[in-house]
Design a protein that fits this description.
Oligomer: single chain
Shape: globular
Order of helices and strands: HHHHHHHHHHHHH
Length: 263
């Protein structure tokens, strides 16, 4: 008998974090042209969007989440040894679009308090005039004497970064929940929080490893990110499938999920 999502979360085994990343890289290396190709497309879109005022924000909230959903879709096909094509990265535009975009907006709003703390600390560290000069890329206007690396300011930065990291990790399975369990935005976010919360120390380790791996990718002349970023998304998918099985769809009920989350 197939388990409901609520039962799958409650009985999920302890995650083996290192294995997820190992399998994530293996998945990317099986289909390098596909995964590197979608990253190059994302880089190109981001570059073009940065040249038009307001378009960079639009692509972050409208285009990026749908393409991220596409990475999970391709990862699922590779995982179940089905044919994966480049156009599958655009399957996120075909269904559950509203829930995907809404969840992205809600997750962005959820992380706003952390970003607010980080922004406040940033202004305290460098001074408002320096922040404006940095934003305008006016190096001559920067006054190093205005920098204030006091303990309080450093503490505020760390608090903001840690809070942003925790919030982001709690919602890490939102898109897979929408795609593979057919949930709408809020129940998907709730189910993700419940699953991550059940194994919170493990997923904080997951977050730290993801940061280190992608920092290493950035150090490799940035080119390494073309591999490490999709490998990280594949690792998220593999963790999801390992814990509650991506294609175990019978018996899911949004009301039960929400009630279980609230209780």
């Amino acid at each position: 008998m197939k388990k409901t999502l609520e039962e799958s979360i409650r009985t999920s085994k302890s995650p083996i974090i290192v294995n997820y990343f190992s399998q994530g890289f293996n998945m990317v290396f099986k289909k390098p042209i596909l995964f590197v190709g979608i990253m190059l497309l994302l880089v190109g879109i981001s570059y073009l969007a940065s040249k038009v005022v307001g378009l960079d924000v639009a692509q972050s909230f409208l285009l990026q989440p749908l393409l991220m959903m596409g990475i999970f879709i391709v990862a699922d096909k590779v995982n179940y040894q089905e044919e994966a094509r480049f156009d599958n990265f655009f399957d996120g535009f075909k269904s559950q679009v509203v829930h995907t975009l809404l969840s992205n907006l809600l997750r962005g709003l959820a992380v706003l308090p952390a970003l607010g703390i980080m922004g406040y600390a940033y202004v305290r560290l460098f001074g408002w005039d320096n922040v404006v000069a940095m934003y305008e890329q006016n190096q001559d206007a920067i006054e190093p004497l205005m920098f204030d690396f006091s303990g309080l300011n450093i503490f505020l930065v760390l608090v903001g970064v840690l809070l942003a990291l925790v919030i982001s990790m709690l919602f890490i399975f939102t898109l897979p929940m929408i795609r593979f369990r057919g949930l709408s935005a809020v129940p998907a976010m709730s189910a993700s929080v419940k699953l991550v919360g059940r194994h919170f120390p493990n997923f904080m380790l997951f977050a730290l490893l993801a940061i280190l791996i992608n920092l290493a990718g950035a150090l490799l002349l940035i080119v390494g990110l073309l591999v490490t970023i999709p490998a990280t998304y594949c690792a998220i998918y593999i963790a999801f499938d390992d814990l509650i099985e991506a294609r175990e769809v019978d018996g899911d009920n949004e009301d039960a999920i929400m009630n279980h989350f609230i209780s």
